[in-house]
Amino acid sequence: MNARDLKSFAIAELQREFVLLGEPAFRAEQALEWAYRGVADFSQMTNLPKALRQKLSERFFVSTLSPKSVSDSSEIETARTVKFLFALEDGKEIETVLIPDFKSETQRRLTVCVSSQVGCAMACKFCATGYMGFTRNLTVGEIVGQVECAAKWARERWNQRITNVVFMGMGEPMLNYERVMEAAYILSAHRYPFQIGERRITLSTVGVVAGIDRLAESPLKINLAVSLHSAIEEKRRALMPIAREFSLAQLRRSLIAYYAKTKREIFIEYLLLDGVNDGEEDATALVKFARSVPSKINLIDYNPIANIDYRRSDEARKTRFREILRQAGLFASVRRSRGKDIDAACGQLATRSISKKTLKPV
Predict the structure, then answer these.
(1) Strand ranges (DSSP E) for the chain?
(2) Check: CATH 3.40.50.720 for 4-61?
(3) What's the CATH class of domain 67-358?
(4) pLDDT tens-digit map of 112-150
(5) Which residues are catalytic?
(6) Which of 193, 212, 344 is nearest to 267 (CA)?
(7) Residue ranges matching CATH 1.10.150.530 in the chain
(8) pLDDT in tens, 243-302
(9) What is the pTM of this model?
């Protein structure tokens, strides 16, 4: 019998496995607690019966996600952005980014940008991951393992715990919804070691309406971010193929229903591309869309990708765009991307399995 990774199972799946072994379902989560506390030897899981520990050692193993390489940004002298490249059990690769924001001794924010898939099927024209194509979904253990590794790194380097998690790495989280939400539960639940508050976990989607509708019904109170990038239908379709499946009108209705159900403000992510989506008509369209539901707008600088012909908006156009939003009474911040020099900034994640110098539009 081939041993299977205990961490690869969702809790309900593992409970069924334990029942098949003739054990109570609640033992499954006890075993997972040990696994996520770094215990890989089943004989040391002392609150499990000895006979069960023997069964587990014969059928399962506990994986550890270790980085294949680690890159340090040189943008600032202290608290540098870090990018991890992970090789998975099947040889596939993913990237994860650790972003420190230490304003003072009392304001120390440490965010992990987590991947949810190997590659991405969304094919957004401004994103390196989209040019990789989609390979497979990550398991629960592979998702949580990224945070485990980043947390260990942060403790050793800065003596700092992870405060925030954003599902904004490789892949579309809504297309791996069950595993992403299972990971969010493990990262936030008190019985596991991470204990990251639900309101400090953010799931970002390019606008998969069915996923937004499911999130509205979830008992987990995590944040929702929507990558909009244009509130003009034709432009959005040109930038983001998903917009051909889910129109702006459909997306708006879904967000209105989400807010009605959750009463949680939505984050709108908007990448500014010079001469593409940063004009006055674009800002006016964004005002109209954002007024549909309480939201905060994050304006993002474009980060260059080899062979992809987009440019970052200049400061004058960016200032004018933001002023139109401000005059309309909308709050908009400019999110300064970190880690550009190590291809770790927004839109730049693409593993070494595809050369970033030879990326081509699909």
Answers:
(1) 4-5, 60-61, 67-72, 82-87, 93-102, 108-113, 117-119, 134-137, 164-167, 201-205, 223-227, 266-272, 295-301, 332-335
(2) no
(3) alpha beta
(4) 999 999 999 998 988 888 788 899 999 999 999 999 999
(5) 95, 346
(6) 212
(7) 4-61
(8) 999 999 999 999 999 999 999 999 999 999 999 999 999 999 999 999 999 999 999 999
(9) 0.90
